[in-house]
User: Which sequence fits this backbone?
């Protein structure tokens, strides 16, 4: 099976090509893209959030078969290149969002999906889009970073 991941056609090894396999495991175990994290396995925490055709998706419950012919973006593909981080990644650092860091790739992907649709989100918009869980409780810093990135992206 072939997937379009981070703008590249990638061939999955046979061990990771069962259409019922969660996308998360195909990415991590089949393609060695380990930035997407396993958290709960039931789509509750958001640590596994990626984009499927530009929409935030919980990869732990997204079957691989549902991704055929769709563009998948993982945290590894969020920035245009190593020298040009995404505005959210810069804002995350500026606002000192990460503590333990485990939820951060999923948080960034959920925030990027929000800003792709809405470059001027209200706090209510941010709260509605950011359903990811953070054990460290960095939600106020997440909101501030999203507002900062949105402002930079509007310029």
Assistant:
């Amino acid at each position: 099976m072939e997937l379009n991941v981070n703008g590249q056609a990638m061939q999955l090894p046979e061990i990771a090509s069962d259409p019922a396999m969660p996308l998360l495991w195909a990415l991590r175990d089949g393609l060695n893209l380990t930035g997407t994290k396993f958290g709960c396995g039931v789509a509750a925490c958001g640590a596994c959030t990626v984009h499927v055709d530009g929409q935030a998706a919980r990869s732990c419950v997204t079957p691989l078969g549902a991704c055929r012919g769709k563009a998948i973006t993982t945290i590894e593909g969020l920035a245009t290149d190593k020298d040009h981080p995404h505005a959210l990644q810069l804002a995350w650092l500026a606002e000192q969002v990460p503590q333990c860091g485990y939820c951060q790739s999923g948080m960034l992907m959920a925030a990027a999906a929000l800003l792709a649709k809405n470059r001027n989100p209200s706090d209510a918009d941010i709260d509605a889009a950011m359903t990811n869980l953070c054990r460290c409780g960095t939600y106020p810093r997440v909101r501030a970073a999203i507002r900062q990135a949105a402002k930079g992206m509007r310029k």
Summary: The domain at 87-154 is CATH 1.10.150.120 (DNA polymerase; domain 1). The longest strand covers residues 2-5. The chain has a mean pLDDT of 95. Residues 139-154 form the longest helix (16 residues).
